[in-house]
Amino acid sequence: MSVTGAPARRPFWFYLGPAFLVSVGYMDPGNWATSLEAGSRYGYALLWVVTLSSAMAVLMQVLAAKLGIATGMDLAQAMRERYSPAAARFLFATAFLAMMATDLAEFMGVALALNLLFGIPLTWAVLLTVFDVLLILWLERFGFRWVETVILAFVATIGLAYVLELFLAHPDPLEAAWNAFVPNAAVFHDATALFLAMGILGATVMPHNLFLHSAQVKTRTRGNPESKRRVYFWSVVDTVGALSAAWLVNSAILVMAAAVFHQNGLLVTEIDQAYLTLKPLLGQAAALTFAIALLASGLSSSATGTLAGQIVFEGFLQVRVRNAGALRLLVRLLTMAPALVAVWLSVRPMTLLVLSQVVLSMQLPFSVVPLVSFTSDRSLMGELVNPPLLRGLAWLAAGVIIALNLLLLFFAVRGVTT
After folding, report:
1. Which CATH number applies to 12-413?
2. pLDDT at residue 2 above 70?
3. Which of 66-75, 227-236, 307-316, 384-393 has the weakest average pLDDT?
4. Given pLDDT bands bounded at 50, 70 and 90, which one contains residue 137?
5. CA gyration radius, the chain
6. How many whole angstroms separate alpha carbon 234 and alpha carbon 221?
7. Residue 335 · residue 107 · CB < 8 Å
8. pTM for this model (two decimals)
9. Who has the most CB within 10 Å: 10, 12, 217, 386?
């Protein structure tokens, strides 16, 4: 309490953290897979898709945080409460599928990094990824701040790694800047470009991050006497800052691929291929930096994906899991099984990564539409209900996501996608 008896204001840094925890999901191995192939195949042409996807991600994450602040419920709990049991079960099934697709991308990234750095066979590397579940369990013993701080350190590692990569790659800054903000029509005329664009969208606006953010932001409201509007204001600052950093990293991945691979006439469709190709083109330091950043990306995003999986499970089923470790281990093993089969059958890891992002993109409408609907409902949100302009932008973003999904489905039915 202050001297006057009014509640003391929390310092601004108290509110920072949840969005940075979420942001790692926006620079996970799935992003690497789609951005590397997009850059090597089309140069800078799909860079605007990264910008558009990042802008929609900021909007949706702000809404997710707002939902948690205004209602005290995360997105899974809100779906369970507001929809019929049958609809809730369907949404739980789609969300759980998205969690599995997310986990697949994350631990395949860890496995690839272990393989590249230490020469561990991919099958054993996949099995070793189960131990990153123990990482998040160990960190949680010290409180949510420790989890956020360690994840932030991973984010910083990835960011610094790509500063070095761009310094070594010497991209064309004017061409990159132009393509980052000016749409290129290639995506609407080339089925492969559309497929990659959908992968970028699925890798950027990720369903599990909406569930995670709406739950994690509640750590800033418990026992906090300050107004919801103030908490919301700083959550917006947190979200814009964290996701702007993620946009820069995602753009850097694509720009590096365009400058190094596309400019040399090389089509890179595998992460290990990118690592091996960087050695002769930019040197051992660039290749080693690439692999270390990939490991940081996989470990951190896998930890947050595991947290999101627990939130989905508990929110929809209205249970409090006493043994969170057992639940997380079960989810990891369920996700690991198809990956192990795919590795044994020699399915390309990059194929699994890109496919997982397309699966996430197809699930997005089932998360985004309820989120926009909830945050536009005054009876639920009270003073934090979406104002008309924000409501219009949110429904526009949801419409773009749905339209792109329908377009991809059209191409798939026509048998055009590769």
Report:
1. 1.20.1740.10
2. no
3. 307-316
4. low
5. 21
6. 12
7. yes
8. 0.84
9. 217
